[in-house]
Sequence to fold (654 residues):
Amino acid sequence: MAVNFRHVLHTTLLLPPPPPHLWPSPLPSCKPTRTKLSATSSPSPSSTQMELHTQGRQKFMEFPFVSAPHRELMVDLVSTVEDRLGSQLLPCTLPPDIQHCQNQNGTAQASLHIRSAHDSSTSKVDFILGSWLHFALPTGAALNITSLSAYLNPSTDAPNLVVELIQSSPTSLIFILDLPPRKDPVLYQEYLQTFYENTKLETRRQMLEKLPEVQPYVSSSLYLRCVLSPTAILIRIQTEDSGPERLEEIIKDQLHPVAKEVVGIWVDHCACGEREVEEEEKAYLKKRDQIIKRKTIEIDLGTNFPRLFGPELAGRVLGAIQEVYDR
Amino acid sequence: MAVNFRHVLHTTLLLPPPPPHLWPSPLPSCKPTRTKLSATSSPSPSSTQMELHTQGRQKFMEFPFVSAPHRELMVDLVSTVEDRLGSQLLPCTLPPDIQHCQNQNGTAQASLHIRSAHDSSTSKVDFILGSWLHFALPTGAALNITSLSAYLNPSTDAPNLVVELIQSSPTSLIFILDLPPRKDPVLYQEYLQTFYENTKLETRRQMLEKLPEVQPYVSSSLYLRCVLSPTAILIRIQTEDSGPERLEEIIKDQLHPVAKEVVGIWVDHCACGEREVEEEEKAYLKKRDQIIKRKTIEIDLGTNFPRLFGPELAGRVLGAIQEVYDR
Fold:
């Protein structure tokens, strides 16, 4: 069944911010000192907005349909990004029925959270998008997709981030982890060197590839294959022979530490790294980013969401995402 | 041992033209009627040049160190390209000791042939490059690499062609077959549609992937991964269990027909297809092509050739290739 959903790359786990009392974090952030949500360039969110955000985040962070190691992985990644970038992010202001939605007969549920960055000259983040999707299959099994993606703005040319786990049975998981490049790596060799060779991302890919339960995963979308980097981790893990416990063990002991490391590399080198971008190049990045976002939403959600949630609700969800993409 | 040579992607089998008496071919060519070598824009090659070319081609087409099915595959691909494009190509004018070279103790031999296209407004071909390389390993086994690649010029943006077979034992083969894109496919979706989706290249990749002896092959060069298309065939075939005969059977019954089809697609849709290219885009193509060629020679030959043939001979071979690349 995962075959039908393997393009749902960016339906990813919403990254709602932590509740306000948790905002000051002991971990270092891009900026040495934390600022409140009320950055100078943006008005403070109202208490209604914060309430909306907090409730949506709570539901999102439950990851109610996946195993404990799967949930812990996602919560840890979301928390890591929030701890480092939280002060740059606005609360999620999607309407409640889009932050969490379900179909009429309750077989499909989804949580969607998007946090844009402050319109500030200091932030390199465009927005962060997370989601989970649960769909009860007619066979009695269920499809669960959890994901987290982050897009940077044209003040930097550094790569974006995408993490996705697609679980179609207790013994089968597709795992996608990448820093998709924002420039054609064929033309810009320094880019390849800086973000992919110097960071040794390939060693993480190779480590997972060596596990006996792991097979390479090839997306059926040629476009998505082009969007991903040469060190992208795209694997299918199957543990039919050793049961669901082995899959949970792999998530906990292998996927979680690798994902944590890669997200750390993304925060340090991409979201918080310094890059000089000429004005002309900003236009190029803006154009390329826009094409990727539009095409991704078309491939990922355009087909599946209407089937799962009906055209009316799907239209509203896609419209809400599109609005952020076009901002 | 193939690991040490897996970047030798473009040392590929030279495509020397057929002897002059074979030039008129029964197969259709890009141009409905064949022209002689003496196109209006280029002087006729001298008899010395033709002799040099013919001798080099003869040696090249022997493929003396590989199995019959491997040889037949390469001869067929070279002949197919020559039959369709031969009238556009000049003879190979590399010096004899570069068309065929060997090291001092005779453990390494190589054949290299390059044919540039006439400087004609009608040809879309830049040059065609083929090679074979034989290296006797200290273990008694041998490494054999055969390949064919073709580069188009900026009058079209259509993809190039690369075919390579890397055989490190009688039961182990790496097979690379692709039409590498000449534009960033993320930015140009029509390009992806025209050359990769409409041509159904993915069905060929999937067909080979399903063979039980086939595993995906991942180049250790991140740059080469970026250069290849989303439908690139990169596989490792291992037949230890069923012996060398099974590998020969796979080459004959599976690789050969797929390679023939893909080369046919390249000739029809790329080398002979009509594309409109604006002046500004020509500059982009020229720049991108140049970067790929320089980087490829650096990755493929820059490391291995000096080790195999010594610095002096390697320098001359690389210089001869560079001269064609920079033309």
